[in-house]
Design brief:
- The protein has about 210 residues and is of the alpha+beta class.
- The chain has a single domain (about 30-195), classed as VC0467-like (3-Layer(aba) Sandwich), CATH 3.40.1740.10.
- It has helices at about 75-80, 130-135, 160-165, 175-180, 185-195; strands at about 30-35, 50-55, 60-65, 95, 100-110, 120, 125, 145-155, 170.
- β6 and β7 (about 125) form a beta hairpin.
- The longest helix has 9 residues, at about 185-195.
C-alpha cells in the first residue's frame, strides 16, 4: 500500500456497525476468520481477521496479520498532533481491511476502557478514539493492543454465504493470534490450531 494515509479517529468510538448483540445471535463475534488457501481476493490472501461484529445485519472485523509499510506509529501520532513519551512502545500499524482505510481502530485488552469502548467479548474491546492513542503514546494504554487502519465489512448474509462457499474457516481467538508480533506466522498458526494442513486443501476444495 503505497498511498499516503491520513488518519481519522472518531470521537464516539463507534464503527458504524456496533450492533453486536442488538437482538441477534453473536455468530462469529470474538472469533477469527482464516482465509482458505484458494482465496481469490488478494486483499485477503492468507489473512486472519478478528470478528468484532457478526449478526443478522452484517459483519465487521479487523485483519490482524498484515502491516502497512507506508505508515509508522510515530508518523500517525505526528499527524494527530500527539507527542509520544520517551519510553512509549512503537507499535505497528496494520491494514485492518479495505473499508474506510483512513479510519483508525484499536483492538485491545479490557484493562483500558473508555465510555466509547465496545466490548466484543470478556477478553477483547474495540476503541476508535484519539484518546486511546494518546494513552498508548504516554505509556498508559492497554497491555495488549493492535492498531489498524480500515476494516473488513460484509452486508447481511454476505459473510455467511462466503463461508458456505468455502472462502473462510473460523477458529477460536487467543492473545497470541490476535495481538502477537509475529504477523507472518499467524495464518499458518491459525491453520495449525484448526488441525488443517494448507497443502491438503485444493484451491477449489469442496470440503474444509
Amino acid at each position: 500500500m503505497a498511498e499516503q494515509h491520513h488518519t481519522g479517529f472518531g470521537g464516539n468510538g463507534g464503527n458504524g456497525e456496533s450492533g453486536a448483540g442488538d437482538g441477534g445471535e453473536p455468530y462469529l463475534s470474538g472469533q477469527l476468520l482464516v482465509a482458505m488457501p484458494g482465496m481469490t481476493d488478494p486483499r485477503f490472501e492468507k489473512s486472519v481477521i478478528y470478528m468484532c461484529v457478526h449478526n443478522a445485519d452484517g459483519a465487521m472485523g479487523l485483519v490482524v496479520n498484515r502491516p502497512i509499510e507506508s505508515m509508522t506509529f510515530p508518523e500517525m501520532l505526528e499527524q494527530l498532533g500527539i507527542d509520544p513519551a520517551d519510553d512509549a512502545d512503537a507499535i505497528r500499524v496494520l491494514f485492518g481491511g479495505p473499508v474506510e482505510q483512513a479510519r483508525g481502530f484499536v483492538l485491545h485488552s479490557p484493562d483500558y476502557l473508555q465510555d466509547a469502548s465496545m466490548m466484543v467479548d470478556e477478553k477483547v474491546a474495540l476503541t476508535a478514539t484519539v484518546d486511546i492513542l494518546r494513552a498508548i503514546a504516554d505509556g498508559a494504554g492497554p497491555r495488549n493492543r493492535l492498531l489498524a487502519l480500515g476494516y473488513a465489512g460484509w452486508g447481511p448474509g454476505q459473510l455467511d454465504d462466503e463461508i458456505m462457499r468455502n472462502g473462510w474457516l473460523n477458529v477460536t481467538a487467543d492473545d497470541d493470534l490476535v495481538f502477537g508480533d509475529d504477523l507472518d506466522a499467524k495464518w499458518e498458526r491459525a491453520m495449525a490450531k484448526l488441525g488443517v494442513d494448507p497443502l491438503m486443501l485444493s484451491d477449489n476444495a469442496g470440503h474444509a
